[in-house]
Amino acid sequence: MRRAGRALASVFVDIMDTLKPGAVTADIDRQVEETIRAAGGTPAFKGYRGGGGKPYPASACISIDEEVVHGIPSVRRLQDGQIVGIDIGLALDGWFADMAASFLIGSSDGRRKMLHRVTREALYRGIQQARAGNSLMDIGGAVQDWAEQHGCYVIRELVGHGVGAHLHEEPAVPNYRSPANNVLLRPGMTIAIEPMVSTGTWQIKMLADGWTAVTADGSPAGHFEHTVLITDGDPEILTLLPDGSDPWQRIEA
What are phi and psi of 244, to 5 degrees? Predict the structure, then answer.
């Protein structure tokens, strides 16, 4: 999973320079798949059926503005001022890594800049709580508190998850306090922590394509995700570059 995570982090570096006004989302997706396969991996999302519905048709989820997650790449072009979430999964030698980041395209307004910063910071607040002896509610509570302190809302119908020999495993990892999922964390667990945050409502609706989730009020949303290993000490982020750095440290909020 460390190898898969490093390879996936490198995919994000590879696409960063292409995320500009005018870029076609299908072209970005094609670049993602080529980079994954060049690294010896397999796109984990392509053909994925989720709950048994239509197979996902692309290697990356590219979600623009009010699209929270699972936006399908197409002939659509990125436009100046948008916030765009890129979510990618990678399989390598039977092990999975999952990662997402939001990007500001061109000159974004203050609301989107704030959303980008708060969502990214919420991820790290959650990761800080990913320690043996803590619970999933500690992670979700940290994410929720940080978002709400800044006037934002966490999406409740979509959550993080376990990840390892399969892309999605138990347990579910909510981004809010959920006593129903108060699972204790143990060394060796690997989970995907992924705050999805909106500047408006926490409620969502699904588009007719069966995949794309959008905010119910049309407000912009942000999404950041890392795959994390629970250890006997500090949490270990598996989706880092080979030098141990975070691929989106270069992103300016």
Answer: 85, 5
For residues 198 and 83, the answer to whether their CB atoms sit within 8 Å is no
* Residue 126, token pair as written in the block: 């959650």
ω before 171 within 30° of 0 (cis)?
A: yes
C-alpha distances (whole Å) from 40 to each of 11, 33, 90 are: 12, 11, 10
User: If DSSP codes are grouped into helix, strand and coil, which group holds residue 11?
Assistant: helix
pLDDT digits (tens, 9 = 90+) for 149-194: 999 999 999 999 999 999 999 999 999 998 877 899 999 999 999 9
Among all chains, which residue has been given the structure tokens 């048994």? Answer: 52
Q: What is the pTM of this model?
A: 0.96
Indicate the residue type of 46: K
Asked if residue 100 lies in contact with residue 15, where contact means CB atoms within 8 angstroms, the answer is no
pLDDT at 178: 86
Match 């929270």 to its residue by tokens: 68
Give me the residues paired with residue 88 across strands: 60, 99
The domain ranges of the chain are: 2-250
Q: How far is CA 233 from CA 129, 134, 154, 190, 238, in A?
A: 11, 12, 28, 14, 15
Tell me which CATH code domain 2-250 carries.
Answer: 3.90.230.10
Please tell me the predicted confidence (pLDDT) of residue 182. Answer: 86
CA gap 29, 34 in Å, rounded: 9
